[in-house]
Amino acid sequence: MGKKRIAVVFDFDGTLIDSRNIKKKNYVKAFEEIFNTGEANRKIIEESFERTAGASRFFQLSHTLSALNIQAKDEEKQRWSNVYSSINKKELKQLSEFPSVRKVLDQLGKNGYELFLTSGVPYEELIHEIEIRGLREYFKEINGGGKSKFLKEIKRKGFDHILLIGDTDYDKKTAEDAGALFYKVESDKEISALPDFLLFLSK
């Protein structure tokens, strides 16, 4: 029996770069600027962010607005998204990838795995982030804005296994709903152990 064909699908935030805490801080800041939520609502916003981390941006926004009982117009939602993007753009460039990321991506590519990238971040922002980091060349396909549909599209390509690598409970549920396997990243330790896990999965 030959080696199994495996699609290795990476999340971006919290998986390739340790950005989750900064994203949460910026998420709250954007709410304060656009919706004047103030300190009293900070905990509600943070809890909503944690519950929906990994989902598309506007899904997260809708969840948080509902938790705050705020009715927002479409133009306000777009302004919030623009502010959130602007803050992230300034701060995320200060973050490096987890130390083992490039070594592992190189190794997986040389070993013949097909690598994909997906994120709840809008596509244009995701492309910008990975291009300035020099990571685009590693991935066969890149998807921004939502993960579920992308996983289902990959499933139709005839892989023996699809493995979503992410950092949140939302990522895990998305993988399960799409009939994919899930590998959770909490630190560089899990990134560095990924090749051995895939070797086991390939047998």
SS strand fraction? 5-15%
CATH topology of the largest domain: Rossmann fold
Q: Given the C-alpha coordinates, what overall shape results?
A: elongated
Contiguous helical run count: 9
* CATH architecture title of the largest domain: 3-Layer(aba) Sandwich
The rounded distance between the terminal residues' Cα atoms is 9 Å
**Tally of structural domains:** 2
Give the CATH level 1 class of the largest domain.
Answer: Alpha Beta
Q: Extract low-pLDDT stretches.
A: none
Biggest sheet, spatial arrangement of strands: 3-2-1-4-5
| Rg, Å, rounded | 17 Å
Biggest β-sheet, characterized? Answer: 5 strands, parallel
Order of helices and strands: EHHHHHEHEHEHEH
How does the helix and strand content classify structurally?
alpha/beta
The named CATH superfamily of the largest domain: HAD superfamily/HAD-like
Total strands: 5
Query: Mean pLDDT, nearest integer?
Result: 94
Range of helix content: 40-55%
Describe the structure.
The chain folds into 2 domains: 6-18 and 97-202, HAD superfamily/HAD-like (Rossmann fold); 20-92. With 203 residues, it is an alpha/beta fold. The model has no long low-confidence stretch (mean pLDDT 94). It has helices spanning 20-35, 42-52, 57-68, 74-92, 101-110, 123-132, 148-155, 169-177, 188-202, and strands at residues 6-10, 114-119, 141-144, 161-166, 181-184. The chain is built from 9 helices and 5 strands; from the N terminus they run βαααααβαβαβαβα. Strands 3-2-1-4-5 form a 5-stranded parallel beta sheet, sandwiched between helices. 54% of the residues lie in helices and 12% in strands. The N and C termini lie close together (9 Å).
